[in-house]
Design goal:
With 129 residues, this protein is an alpha+beta fold. The protein has 2 helices and 8 strands; from the N terminus they run E-H-E-E-E-E-H-E-E-E. It has an 8-stranded mixed sheet, covered by helices on one side. A hairpin with a 5-residue loop joins strand 7 and strand 8. The model has no long low-confidence stretch (mean pLDDT 86).
Length: 129
């Protein structure tokens, strides 16, 4: 069995969403589109999505403007794919990391957790269940 790339999602946190959108659209010669925010987190964040195929190959991602997450200094989060992100959440503390945000629903987009690794880097784990 050929190993798969486990990275499935990324978020680049920004202070000025319009400025960042214009920068990435120009540099990468592509168009970002607003990604609807799940009802549970509306008002807390706004996202502009890079072109993606939700079930396609490769990682997809967004620029994110969210209260409490400043740009720079670890403002990019890689999400790893999982069958159920609660499984990885249970392993984090024993491996020396910390759970930053326990499993939460993203509505139709599945579930996620956020954690901090042993080096202080934040990362996420995403699952559909």
């Amino acid at each position: 069995m050929k190993p798969k790339n486990p990275a499935v999602w990324f978020e680049i946190y920004v202070d000025d969403l319009k400025r960042a959108q214009e920068f990435y659209e120009e540099v990468l010669n592509l168009k970002l589109n607003e990604l609807p925010t799940p009802k549970d987190v509306q008002g807390e964040m706004k996202m502009m999505a890079f072109p993606m195929e939700m079930n396609g190959e490769g990682a997809s991602g967004t620029l994110v403007k969210m209260k409490g997450f400043d740009a720079g200094n670890n403002s990019t989060i890689v999400y790893f794919q999982s069958e159920d992100c609660a499984i990885e959440e249970r392993r984090i503390s024993s491996a020396g990391g910390k759970v930053f945000k326990s499993k939460q629903s993203l509505g139709e987009y599945g579930f996620m957790i956020l954690a901090i690794d042993t080096e202080g880097n934040m990362f996420g784990v995403h699952s559909q269940k």
